[in-house]
Amino acid sequence: MSRVLAFDLGASSGRAVLAEYAEEKIKYKEIHRFENMPVSENGTLRWDFDYLMREIKKGIDLAIDLGGVDSMAFDTWGVDYGLLDDSGKLVSQPFHYRDKRTERLPQQIFKQMPPEELYSATGIQIMPINTLFQLAAEKHKNISKFLFIPDLIVYELCGAVSAEQTIASTSQMLDPKTKNWNPQVVSLTGMPQHILPPVVKSATPAGEYKGIQIIKAAGHDTQCAVCAMPSAQQESAAFLSCGTWSLIGCECDAPVMTKKSMEDELSNELGANGKINYLKNISGLWLIQQLKKDFQAQGKTYSYSDMENLAKESKPFLCFIDADDPAFSLPGGMPHKIISRCREMGQAVPQSDGQIIRTVYESLAMKYRFALLQIEDNISRRLEKLYLLGGGSKDPLLCKMAACSTGIPVAAGPAEATALGNILLQLVALGDINNIESGRKIIRQSEKISIYEPENTDLWEKQYNRYLKLLNK
Question: What is the rounded CA–CA span in Å between residue 365 and residue 385?
């Protein structure tokens, strides 16, 4: 029997999940949960990394008190990082990817390297939040080391300096073919090459802390979630990892770095199993989370279940928004922003909380279809099933709408896909299971997966065409 500890840090919360593996079964439970909220510092948006480390160490101590573990690993959101000085200390709290300092950086970088060339070098969707642009905005000098957030956590615990491949591939500085840094792209940041750590494969041992082996599983939470996708080996399947962000895509044997792929804003991220996860980053439950927060500020304490019910009771297809509209990228005033955008587009305006919520649900479902069709067009094959992973899989309305919009069955679950993927990769590193395919078989046999079939496809087709016209797609 092996016992492992998976830390999964998302853009709004973190948790520690303790797992036991025996007789081809995984039993797991959350033993610690903590908030992960950005902090304001001199007009900038940051992560409170010192606080995160305190909470992580609490989780480790809890696991030790519960009988100890053989290993532990950490996954987080992508792109963000910390910088270390000559003494090995953080020069400042890490920037949050939503900080405004990078808004105009892409245009500056394009003067040195055109977007087509940048995409053909990295295969990553060009977004101002990418590490490349964040580093180009840095003002610090005399930097000795650069580490992504999950690698920074490992460094703080055991001193290991490396970049796990999946988190490194979110940076827009990695070549997906060589799986190493692209020197020409790195030079665009103005930072010296030597601060970048060596890139290591997923499921690589890194060191020890309190006698527990630390493993670099997959540092990027999305890639952990994809590892736990309960698909069969030859299945033509798509995945939708749905949390604060939605990442929709499929596994490919080689990157797709054509001009069309760039124009469609698709990314080639390295998967933990050596495959390319060809995907699109789109807004996920961020809008729902922000609506909940804003409603609460108005004295309306809705649960997520309450919000789902309000949406169900509301008139369908009243109006649409683009979930990725920059107007919705910053927190605050989300109900008003949605109403204003609908009015500006000449649509009917949502009159109730339920109508606002339903507008978001339907708009997300339409965006899923839009992204899926783009992916199919670029890979020249049909995707026949959608695996909806993560927190969104617990939302029946979202799952049903995704099935109706895309016209293919949606397999929802596991909800804990990210933690399970982290656990599976630790078991691979420990030698308990052979590979990710073996892990997926375990997931298929042990996790409850709900199937949602498409309905009213003619109606959804008609509304999808309306959505395209409204958004000029």
Answer: 15
Q: What is the CATH number of the domain that holds 200?
A: 3.30.420.40
Domain presence at residue 427:
no
CB contact at 8 A, 387 and 230? yes
Q: Which of 151, 221, 353, 395 is catalytic?
A: 221
Mean pLDDT, the chain, whole residue set: 96
Query: Is there a single domain that holds both residue 314 and residue 239?
Result: yes
Among 187, 220, 253, the domain boundary falls at 220
Of 175, 188, 82, nearest to 132 by C-alpha is: 188
Domains in the chain, number: 2
pLDDT band (50, 70, 90) for residue 196:
very high
Answer left, alpha or beta for residue 145, where phi above 0 means left and psi between -120 and 50 means alpha: beta
In a domain, 384, yes or no: yes
Count CB-CB contacts under 10 A for residue 122: 24
The radius of gyration of the chain from alpha carbons, rounded to an integer in Å, stands at 21
**What does the pLDDT read at residue 78?**
95
Same domain, 204 and 269: no
Indicate whether 250 and 214 sit together in one domain.
no
pLDDT of residue 354: 99
CA distance 249 to 251: 7
Model pLDDT, residue 235: 78
Is 262 in contact with 385 (CB distance < 8 Å)? no
428 is a domain residue: no
- Active site annotation includes 324: no
Tokens of 243: 């949390």
Q: pLDDT tens digit string along 121-165? A: 999 999 999 999 999 999 888 899 999 999 999 999 999 999 999
Angle (deg, nearest 10), helices 436-446 and 417-430: 130
278 band by pLDDT with thresholds 50, 70 and 90 = very high
- What mean pLDDT is predicted for residues 450-455? 98
SS3 content of the chain, % helix, strand, coil (to 5): 40, 25, 35
Query: Which SS3 state, helix, strand or coil, does residue 130 take?
Result: coil
Cα 173 to the chain's mean position, in Å? 18
Give the whole-angstrom CA distance, residue 306 versus residue 295. 12
Full domain range(s) for residue 37:
2-220
CA dihedral sign of residues 121, 123, 128, 129 = negative
* Last residue within a domain, chosen from 220, 244, 273: 220
DSSP single-letter state for residue 193: G
